[in-house]
Each structure stands twice: as structure tokens, then as C-alpha cells.
Design a protein that fits this description.
By secondary structure, the chain is of the alpha+beta class. It has two domains: about 35 residues; about 70 residues, Immunoglobulin-like (Sandwich). The chain contains two helices and seven strands, in the order ααβββββββ. Strand 5 and strand 6 form a beta hairpin. The termini are far apart.
């Protein structure tokens, strides 16, 4: 029996084991990705803030999301359903704040033309 035929007969005899091993590897890879990135399916909304001027800092629920260094920026971030407070601050300007509610049905809310 040549090597190719030996491999084929070995594979066919252990086909279920190989299939199970491949499925387990895929499952644990996806599980690790979800666990490490905090990815949630169907449980998040999108907040998008457009036209943020250079020098601005954007906070959502007290956490710094982004500091705009130069140019005009658009910020998009996923959030869980519920109330969220957005704060945009910039030196020599009054801070802008707004509390919004993201429901499970929301795709997102867009806040346009800040610090224009």
C-alpha cells in the first residue's frame, strides 16, 4: 500500500474525529475573539458624532473615546442599550453634553456639526 492510500484509509477511518477537532478549533477561536473584543451580537447600538474639530476630546459615559489632533473627525462607537452621556470638550469653549437613550431597536443616533 502506498502512502497516499494509507493516508486516505486512515482519514476515512477517523473522519468523525477530524471533523470534531476542526469544529472545536473553530469554536474556541470564535469564543476567544468574542471574549477578548467584547463583541456582542444584537445587543448594541451605534453612536456616531460627525464634524468634531481639532483639539476636541470626546467622552462617552466618562470614558475618553477620542482626542481629535488635527482636521475634522467623525467618531463611531458601539454602545449597549440604555442611557449614555456624551461630552465633547475643547479648550476655550464651553463643554457640550447630551444624554441619549439607545434602545435595542435603535441603529444609532447621529449628532452633527459640533463645534462647527
Amino acid at each position: 500500500m502506498d502512502t497516499k492510500q494509507e493516508f486516505k484509509s486512515h482519514y476515512l477511518a477517523n473522519k468523525k474525529t477530524y471533523t470534531l477537532a476542526i469544529l472545536l478549533i473553530i469554536f474556541f477561536g470564535v469564543w476567544t475573539l468574542v471574549r477578548e473584543t467584547g463583541f456582542r451580537v444584537g445587543e448594541s447600538g451605534l453612536i456616531e458624532i460627525q464634524k468634531i474639530a481639532a483639539g476636541s476630546s470626546v467622552f462617552i459615559d466618562g470614558d475618553l473615546v477620542e482626542e481629535v489632533v488635527s482636521g475634522v473627525s467623525t467618531i463611531s462607537t458601539d454602545v449597549s442599550p440604555g442611557n449614555h452621556t456624551i461630552l465633547v470638550s475643547r479648550e476655550n469653549f464651553w463643554p457640550w453634553t447630551k444624554t441619549i437613550e439607545i434602545s435595542k431597536e435603535d441603529v444609532g443616533q447621529s449628532l452633527r456639526s459640533l463645534f462647527r
